[in-house]
Fold this sequence. Notes:
- It contains ten helices and eight strands.
- By secondary structure, the protein is of the alpha/beta class.
- The protein has a single domain, classed as TIM Barrel (Alpha-Beta Barrel), CATH 3.20.20.
- The chain has an eight-stranded parallel barrel with strand order 1-2-3-4-5-6-7-8.
- Helix 5 (107-119) packs across helix 7.
- The longest helix is centred in the last third of the chain and has 19 residues, at 181-199.
- The mean pLDDT is 96.
Amino acid sequence: MLKPIIIANWKLNGNKVLVNKFIKKINNDYEKYFKKSTVIISPPMIYIEYMKKFMKNLKLSFAAQNVDYNYQGAFTGEISTYMIQEIGAKYIILGHSERRKHHFENNSLIAKKFYCTKINNLIPILCIGETENEKKSGLTENILTKQIDKIFLICGKNAFHNTLIAYEPIWAIGTGNNASPILINRTLKFIKNYIIFKSENTDIKFYMQYGGSVSTENIKDIICQKNVDGVLIGSGSLNYKNFLEMIKISSKN
Ligand code: PEP
Protein backbone atom coordinates (compact mmCIF):
# COMPACT_ATOMS: atom_id res chain seq x y z
CA MET A 1 0.00 0.00 0.00
CA LEU A 2 1.07 3.57 -0.72
CA LYS A 3 2.59 5.38 2.26
CA PRO A 4 0.64 8.49 3.28
CA ILE A 5 2.16 11.64 1.81
CA ILE A 6 2.52 14.36 4.42
CA ILE A 7 3.46 17.83 3.17
CA ALA A 8 4.44 20.56 5.62
CA ASN A 9 3.97 24.05 4.18
CA TRP A 10 5.69 26.50 6.51
CA LYS A 11 4.66 29.49 4.38
CA LEU A 12 6.51 32.68 5.45
CA ASN A 13 7.31 31.35 8.91
CA GLY A 14 10.28 30.01 10.80
CA ASN A 15 13.83 31.03 11.49
CA LYS A 16 17.16 29.33 12.19
CA VAL A 17 16.02 28.40 15.70
CA LEU A 18 12.99 26.52 14.36
CA VAL A 19 14.99 24.98 11.53
CA ASN A 20 17.62 23.66 13.96
CA LYS A 21 14.93 22.29 16.23
CA PHE A 22 13.33 20.39 13.35
CA ILE A 23 16.68 19.04 12.18
CA LYS A 24 17.55 17.75 15.64
CA LYS A 25 14.15 16.23 16.33
CA ILE A 26 13.72 14.64 12.91
CA ASN A 27 17.20 13.13 13.05
CA ASN A 28 16.13 11.60 16.33
CA ASP A 29 12.66 10.41 15.35
CA TYR A 30 13.13 9.47 11.70
CA GLU A 31 13.80 5.75 12.06
CA LYS A 32 10.93 5.21 14.45
CA TYR A 33 8.19 7.39 13.00
CA PHE A 34 8.97 9.02 9.66
CA LYS A 35 9.78 5.95 7.58
CA LYS A 36 6.17 4.87 7.40
CA SER A 37 5.18 8.05 5.55
CA THR A 38 6.47 10.06 2.61
CA VAL A 39 7.29 13.37 4.27
CA ILE A 40 7.87 16.52 2.23
CA ILE A 41 8.92 19.68 4.03
CA SER A 42 8.47 23.09 2.47
CA PRO A 43 10.22 25.71 4.57
CA PRO A 44 11.05 29.12 3.13
CA MET A 45 13.38 28.41 0.22
CA ILE A 46 16.56 29.75 1.83
CA TYR A 47 16.46 27.07 4.54
CA ILE A 48 16.14 24.06 2.24
CA GLU A 49 19.83 23.53 1.51
CA TYR A 50 20.75 23.93 5.17
CA MET A 51 18.09 21.46 6.33
CA LYS A 52 19.06 18.99 3.64
CA LYS A 53 22.70 19.20 4.59
CA PHE A 54 22.08 18.34 8.22
CA MET A 55 19.49 15.65 7.52
CA LYS A 56 21.51 14.13 4.72
CA ASN A 57 21.03 10.49 5.58
CA LEU A 58 17.29 10.67 5.70
CA LYS A 59 14.86 9.98 2.89
CA LEU A 60 12.97 13.17 3.43
CA SER A 61 12.07 15.44 0.53
CA PHE A 62 11.82 19.18 0.19
CA ALA A 63 9.48 21.42 -1.73
CA ALA A 64 9.96 25.01 -2.81
CA GLN A 65 6.96 27.25 -2.25
CA ASN A 66 7.30 29.11 -5.54
CA VAL A 67 9.31 29.35 -8.74
CA ASP A 68 9.66 31.65 -11.72
CA TYR A 69 9.08 30.26 -15.20
CA ASN A 70 12.08 32.16 -16.56
CA TYR A 71 15.40 30.37 -16.34
CA GLN A 72 17.76 33.31 -15.96
CA GLY A 73 18.16 36.98 -16.71
CA ALA A 74 16.78 40.30 -15.55
CA PHE A 75 14.05 39.06 -13.23
CA THR A 76 14.97 40.61 -9.90
CA GLY A 77 13.85 38.65 -6.87
CA GLU A 78 12.98 35.48 -8.73
CA ILE A 79 14.29 31.91 -8.41
CA SER A 80 14.44 29.36 -11.23
CA THR A 81 13.82 25.63 -11.43
CA TYR A 82 17.57 25.12 -12.00
CA MET A 83 18.36 26.82 -8.70
CA ILE A 84 15.72 24.79 -6.91
CA GLN A 85 17.21 21.63 -8.37
CA GLU A 86 20.69 22.70 -7.34
CA ILE A 87 19.76 23.10 -3.67
CA GLY A 88 18.22 19.63 -3.70
CA ALA A 89 14.47 20.19 -3.60
CA LYS A 90 12.34 17.72 -5.52
CA TYR A 91 8.91 19.37 -5.46
CA ILE A 92 7.41 22.82 -6.03
CA ILE A 93 4.12 23.96 -4.54
CA LEU A 94 2.17 25.81 -7.24
CA GLY A 95 -1.15 27.59 -7.34
CA HIS A 96 -1.47 28.04 -3.59
CA SER A 97 -4.44 30.27 -2.87
CA GLU A 98 -2.21 32.68 -0.97
CA ARG A 99 -0.11 33.22 -4.09
CA ARG A 100 -3.25 33.53 -6.20
CA LYS A 101 -4.60 36.15 -3.80
CA HIS A 102 -1.60 38.15 -2.61
CA HIS A 103 0.61 37.80 -5.68
CA PHE A 104 -2.13 37.86 -8.29
CA GLU A 105 -1.19 34.53 -9.83
CA ASN A 106 -3.82 33.44 -12.34
CA ASN A 107 -4.40 30.05 -13.96
CA SER A 108 -2.24 30.93 -17.01
CA LEU A 109 0.77 31.96 -14.95
CA ILE A 110 0.42 28.89 -12.75
CA ALA A 111 0.24 26.67 -15.85
CA LYS A 112 3.47 28.21 -17.19
CA LYS A 113 5.19 27.51 -13.87
CA PHE A 114 3.77 23.99 -13.90
CA TYR A 115 5.15 23.40 -17.38
CA CYS A 116 8.63 24.54 -16.54
CA THR A 117 8.60 22.57 -13.27
CA LYS A 118 7.77 19.38 -15.15
CA ILE A 119 10.16 19.75 -18.04
CA ASN A 120 12.95 20.30 -15.56
CA ASN A 121 12.15 17.05 -13.77
CA LEU A 122 10.78 18.58 -10.62
CA ILE A 123 7.40 17.52 -9.30
CA PRO A 124 4.57 20.04 -9.06
CA ILE A 125 2.23 20.01 -6.10
CA LEU A 126 -0.70 21.83 -7.64
CA CYS A 127 -3.12 23.47 -5.20
CA ILE A 128 -6.66 24.07 -6.38
CA GLY A 129 -9.82 25.07 -4.56
CA GLU A 130 -12.81 27.33 -4.38
CA THR A 131 -13.77 30.30 -2.19
CA GLU A 132 -16.62 30.19 0.29
CA ASN A 133 -18.89 32.18 -2.03
CA GLU A 134 -18.12 29.92 -4.95
CA LYS A 135 -18.98 26.93 -2.80
CA LYS A 136 -22.25 28.52 -1.69
CA SER A 137 -23.12 29.24 -5.31
CA GLY A 138 -22.52 25.61 -6.27
CA LEU A 139 -19.50 26.53 -8.40
CA THR A 140 -16.90 24.24 -6.83
CA GLU A 141 -16.59 21.81 -9.75
CA ASN A 142 -16.65 24.63 -12.25
CA ILE A 143 -13.76 26.41 -10.51
CA LEU A 144 -11.73 23.22 -10.11
CA THR A 145 -12.08 22.25 -13.76
CA LYS A 146 -11.05 25.76 -14.88
CA GLN A 147 -7.93 25.53 -12.71
CA ILE A 148 -7.14 22.10 -14.16
CA ASP A 149 -8.01 22.90 -17.78
CA LYS A 150 -5.39 25.64 -18.08
CA ILE A 151 -2.71 23.13 -17.10
CA PHE A 152 -3.90 20.70 -19.79
CA LEU A 153 -4.00 23.49 -22.34
CA ILE A 154 -0.42 24.58 -21.74
CA CYS A 155 1.18 21.27 -20.74
CA GLY A 156 -0.69 18.72 -22.83
CA LYS A 157 -2.49 15.46 -22.13
CA ASN A 158 0.25 13.97 -19.95
CA ALA A 159 0.44 17.06 -17.77
CA PHE A 160 -0.57 15.40 -14.54
CA HIS A 161 1.50 12.24 -14.83
CA ASN A 162 3.69 11.93 -11.72
CA THR A 163 2.35 15.03 -10.00
CA LEU A 164 0.54 15.80 -6.76
CA ILE A 165 -2.75 17.65 -6.64
CA ALA A 166 -3.91 19.23 -3.43
CA TYR A 167 -7.58 20.08 -3.04
CA GLU A 168 -7.41 23.12 -0.78
CA PRO A 169 -10.77 24.84 -0.37
CA ILE A 170 -9.91 28.45 0.41
CA TRP A 171 -12.56 28.64 3.12
CA ALA A 172 -10.76 25.87 4.98
CA ILE A 173 -7.22 27.25 4.89
CA GLY A 174 -6.09 28.69 8.20
CA THR A 175 -9.67 28.93 9.48
CA GLY A 176 -9.87 25.86 11.72
CA ASN A 177 -12.87 24.90 9.59
CA ASN A 178 -11.75 21.82 7.65
CA ALA A 179 -13.85 20.27 4.91
CA SER A 180 -15.66 17.15 6.11
CA PRO A 181 -14.02 13.83 5.23
CA ILE A 182 -17.04 12.93 3.08
CA LEU A 183 -16.80 16.16 1.10
CA ILE A 184 -13.04 15.72 0.72
CA ASN A 185 -13.44 12.20 -0.60
CA ARG A 186 -16.20 13.20 -3.00
CA THR A 187 -14.28 16.20 -4.35
CA LEU A 188 -11.05 14.28 -4.78
CA LYS A 189 -12.96 11.58 -6.65
CA PHE A 190 -14.36 14.23 -8.96
CA ILE A 191 -10.88 15.72 -9.57
CA LYS A 192 -9.36 12.28 -10.14
CA ASN A 193 -12.02 11.21 -12.65
CA TYR A 194 -11.79 14.53 -14.45
CA ILE A 195 -8.03 14.26 -14.85
CA ILE A 196 -8.23 10.65 -16.05
CA PHE A 197 -10.96 11.65 -18.53
CA LYS A 198 -8.99 14.63 -19.90
CA SER A 199 -5.76 12.62 -20.06
CA GLU A 200 -7.50 9.87 -21.99
CA ASN A 201 -5.34 7.51 -20.02
CA THR A 202 -6.60 5.29 -17.22
CA ASP A 203 -3.02 4.33 -16.29
CA ILE A 204 -1.93 7.88 -15.51
CA LYS A 205 -0.29 8.14 -12.05
CA PHE A 206 -0.84 11.12 -9.80
CA TYR A 207 -1.46 11.60 -6.10
CA MET A 208 -4.29 13.37 -4.32
CA GLN A 209 -3.86 15.51 -1.22
CA TYR A 210 -6.24 17.46 0.96
CA GLY A 211 -5.23 20.72 2.65
CA GLY A 212 -7.15 23.10 4.92
CA SER A 213 -7.01 23.14 8.72
CA VAL A 214 -5.71 19.58 9.04
CA SER A 215 -5.01 18.90 12.71
CA THR A 216 -4.29 16.14 15.19
CA GLU A 217 -8.06 15.98 15.80
CA ASN A 218 -9.21 15.45 12.22
CA ILE A 219 -6.30 13.81 10.37
CA LYS A 220 -7.34 10.27 11.23
CA ASP A 221 -10.75 10.62 9.58
CA ILE A 222 -9.33 12.45 6.56
CA ILE A 223 -6.40 10.21 5.77
CA CYS A 224 -8.50 7.03 5.74
CA GLN A 225 -10.73 8.27 2.90
CA LYS A 226 -10.43 6.19 -0.24
CA ASN A 227 -9.31 9.00 -2.53
CA VAL A 228 -6.90 10.66 -0.11
CA ASP A 229 -3.23 9.84 -0.66
CA GLY A 230 -2.05 12.41 1.85
CA VAL A 231 -2.45 15.84 3.37
CA LEU A 232 -0.93 19.27 3.05
CA ILE A 233 -0.53 20.87 6.47
CA GLY A 234 0.06 24.59 6.90
CA SER A 235 0.26 26.21 10.32
CA GLY A 236 -0.16 22.87 12.10
CA SER A 237 3.19 21.73 10.75
CA LEU A 238 5.16 24.47 12.48
CA ASN A 239 4.78 22.93 15.90
CA TYR A 240 7.04 19.87 15.89
CA LYS A 241 5.09 17.96 18.52
CA ASN A 242 1.87 18.46 16.57
CA PHE A 243 3.50 17.59 13.29
CA LEU A 244 4.99 14.38 14.66
CA GLU A 245 1.66 13.41 16.16
CA MET A 246 -0.01 13.82 12.76
CA ILE A 247 2.67 11.67 11.14
CA LYS A 248 2.17 9.01 13.79
CA ILE A 249 -1.63 9.01 13.36
CA SER A 250 -1.54 8.88 9.57
CA SER A 251 0.96 6.04 9.45
CA LYS A 252 -1.33 3.87 11.59
CA ASN A 253 -3.97 3.67 8.87
C1 PEP B 1 -1.89 25.54 3.48
O1 PEP B 1 -1.02 26.33 3.76
O2 PEP B 1 -1.98 25.12 2.33
C2 PEP B 1 -2.83 25.09 4.52
C3 PEP B 1 -3.59 24.05 4.25
O3 PEP B 1 -2.82 25.77 5.67
P1 PEP B 1 -3.56 25.36 7.04
O4 PEP B 1 -3.21 23.92 7.32
O5 PEP B 1 -2.98 26.29 8.05
O6 PEP B 1 -5.02 25.53 6.87
